[in-house]
Amino acid sequence: MVVKVNNLVKRYKELIALDHFNMEVKEGEILGLLGPNGCGKTTAINCILSLLSFDKGEIEVFGKKMTPNSYDIKKKIGLVPQEVSVFNNLTVKENIDYFCGLYIDDKKLREKYVDEAIEFVGLKDYVKFYPKKLSGGLKRRLNISCGIAHKPKLIFLDEPTVAVDAQSRNFILNGIKKLNSEGSTIIYTTHYLEEVEMLCKRIIIMDKGRSLVSGTKEELKAMITTSEKIVAGFLNIDDKTIEKMKNIPHVIDIEKDDEDYIIKFENGVNNLSNLLEFIKDNNLTYTKLHSQLPSLNDVFLELTGKELRD
Amino acid sequence: MRNLFRNCIYQGKNLFRDFGFSFWSLLYPLIMAVFFYTAFSGMLETELKEINVGIDSENSIVNILREIEFLNVHKISKDEVVKKLDDEEIDGFVDSDLDIKVKESGINQTIIKEVVEQIKQMKKLNRPIENYDFSVDYIADRNQKANPLVIIFYSLIAMVSTYGVFAGIEAVSLIQANLSNIGERLNIVPLKKSKFILVGVVVALALNLFANGILLIFIKYVLKLNLFTEIKYSAILIIMGNLFGVALGIFIGSSNKKSNDVKTIMAIAMTLVLSFLSGMMGSGIKVMIDENVPILSRINPISIITNNLYRINLLGSTKSIGEGVIVLSIYCIVLIFTSYIFLRRQSYDSL
Q1: How far apart are the first and last CA of chain B?
Q2: A144 touches chain B (CB under 8 A)
Q3: CB distance B193 to B347 below 8 Å
Q4: Minimum mean pLDDT among B141-145, B153-157, B177-181, B198-202: which range?
Q5: What is the largest CA-CA distance in chain B?
Q6: What is the residue-wise DSSP string for B166-200?
Q7: Is residue A180 predicted with pLDDT exceeding 60?
Q8: Closest Cα of chain A to B167: distance in Å?
Q9: Which of A127-141, B92-106, B132-146 has the lowest mean pLDDT?
Q10: Is A101 at the interface with chain B, CB within 8 A?
Q11: pLDDT in tens, B312-350
Q12: Does position A268 have pLDDT exceeding 80, yes or no?
């Protein structure tokens, strides 16, 4: 186990930021910490890194207790903080070289790593630029390169794609996959569902400082009652018919979403054909009809009663 | 070691390219120098006259004073002292106990005091007074140096020597995870915090001394003011001022969680007030403090530097430099030790 967190409790005066939080990260995996803003993701990372003190619990990294003086462990760790954390008066290359040099003494090796990091984040054309001259997306890429240039075995990425354009976002996400394929274990925090679904082998869903569930995305989706959602739009439907629709086999709930209806089914087969039969029997005219598998948001919704982005 | 050197180079580059540093440490002192030179340049025209000293005819040092060519000695009775001082016929009166009575503080009064102090010292040591050349120690190049503009410049130099305060604030901000984003990153690297502090101090000292050098060159070669005759002692004081400034910056930086901008304003306010009290905006304040709260001049770090630069270079007296260096060293030790208490925590309660 690369990281093991057991019953972590962190309080900010009256507020409980982490409430008996547990986490295990296996070597070589990308673990996604998913949860709404303020749920404790960054606090958890800061506690693991010994940046924050905590009230209770145990943290092990690479099989050893993590403390602020664990320099042998820190050598193997890279952090990409949520905020862009670089020197504004050093160029792109100088920044990467500075942070890489805090880990790598050998000059030739460091130069090689710095060049690779520049290549990796696609900043070759910007090496002499100062950060203030870079766009938000390019700054994020620089932030990432400063955290990974020394080729750490364990990388913490704390919401690295916040406020970046689509192009930089794809670049960053593909880069993270590449880092993982090169052997780095990655802990990735975000509140973007699609990123977690795309990247992470295992996911921990957090809310109010607790780890609610963990598993692969398939395992998480299998934990909830809803197994299929059908989004339908009707021209002529009334409340009475909607009530009647709830009697279709396996329907567990129907929600109105603007002009559409979201019909939720629990595990069952032929849900779509059963619905089509109901439409025909009741002379309904539909404008839209498509089936969706449940998302992680549905998992979150069912577990907490609220949307991830509430 | 190589890592520390690299760290110094990069942090030095970062600080040197920072607008705040360029302005406050490099440009602002030059602006102040030009401002003072323009505003007070009329004072350069002032020619110093002989110093009128009143003395009791029974006083044993009357003949010694008469031998000093820049002193004009008047034998007067004790009853006349107040009137003669009021009428400005004499600048000061030396009584039989070698105590000095003056009506106001100024260059002439300070020179009388220094001469009498020197005579006292020589008497204590049983050295022949005749061997002492007062004109060399107190009067050489006097017309150039003994004007208020020069004293204001000593005060300016004292103030900017403490401008390492800004770099000190920055050095702390960089290593505190609860103060800056970079601090968060630097707290997880496999290097001790104390090494980053050391780097911060070295960089702050080097750059501020460089900035001081630029100012001194500007004063000497552009404004054509010759301020220093005792380079060695002056350099010691300026270096001590730099150490004090950096220590103060580290203290301000570590003692609270205000933003760097607020801390910079705090530093500017502190150095300006201390400089004001040391006489940078005019000698009247300094005279008032010397008369009413003399201890303030002995504990105000900028006054210590100003007064000593003045005594060393204008009066040739080095006797208070030891006390000044000790007081400044005590400040540095106390500030660094207190800062260490704030900085030693390794995990934070909140970020």
Answers
A1: 30
A2: no
A3: no
A4: B141-145
A5: 78
A6: HHHHHHHHHH-TTT-HHHHHHTTSSS-HHHHHHHH
A7: yes
A8: 14
A9: B132-146
A10: yes
A11: 888 778 888 999 999 999 999 999 999 988 887 667 777
A12: no
Report the 10 Å Cβ neighbour count for B271.
24
The CATH H-level superfamily of A225-293 is YebC, transcriptional regulation domain (3.30.70.980)
Contact A106, B145 (CB under 8 A): no
The region of weakest confidence among A117-121, A300-304, B269-273 is A300-304
DSSP 8-state code for residue A34: E
pLDDT band at A294 (very low <50, low <70, confident <90, very high): confident
C-alpha to C-alpha distance for A206 and A192, rounded to whole angstroms: 13
Per-residue model confidence (pLDDT) at position B11: 94
Pull the structure tokens for residue B165. Answer: 């305060």
B190 → closest Cβ in A90, A103, A147:
A103
Q: Where are the domains of chain B?
A: 2-43+147-343, 50-140
Q: What totals of helices (H) and strands (E) does chain A contain, helices first?
A: 11, 14
Q: Domain segments of chain A: what residues?
A: 3-221, 225-293
Higher pLDDT, A112 or A306: A112
Percentage of chain B exceeding pLDDT 90: 36
Q: Which of A187, A195, A119, A204 is nearest to A152 (CA)?
A: A187
Mean pLDDT over each residue of chain B, to the nearest integer: 84
How many distinct helices (H) and strands (E) make up chain B? Answer: 18, 4
pTM of the model: 0.78
Does A102 reach chain B within 8 Å, measured CB to CB? yes
Of residues A152, A48, A168, B182, the one with CA closest to residue A160? A168
Can you read off the two tokens belonging to residue A133? 């001259």
How many Å lie between the alpha carbon of A73 and the closest alpha carbon of chain B? 8
pLDDT at A153 over 70: yes
Nearest CA in chain B to A146: B185
For the record, the structure tokens of B279 come out as 């006489």
Consecutive H or E run containing B214: helix B193-217
| Angstroms from A119 CA to nearest CA on chain B | 22
CB–CB contact B190 A147 (8 Å): no
Answer whether A176's CB lies under 8 Å from A30's CB: yes
The CATH number, out of the four listed (3.40.190.10, 3.20.20.70, 3.40.50.1370, 3.40.50.300), of the domain defined by the range B50-140: 3.40.190.10
Of A72, A49, A47, A70, residue with least CA distance to A57: A47
CATH fold of A3-221 = Rossmann fold (3.40.50)
Cα of first residue to Cα of last residue in chain A, in angstroms, is 33
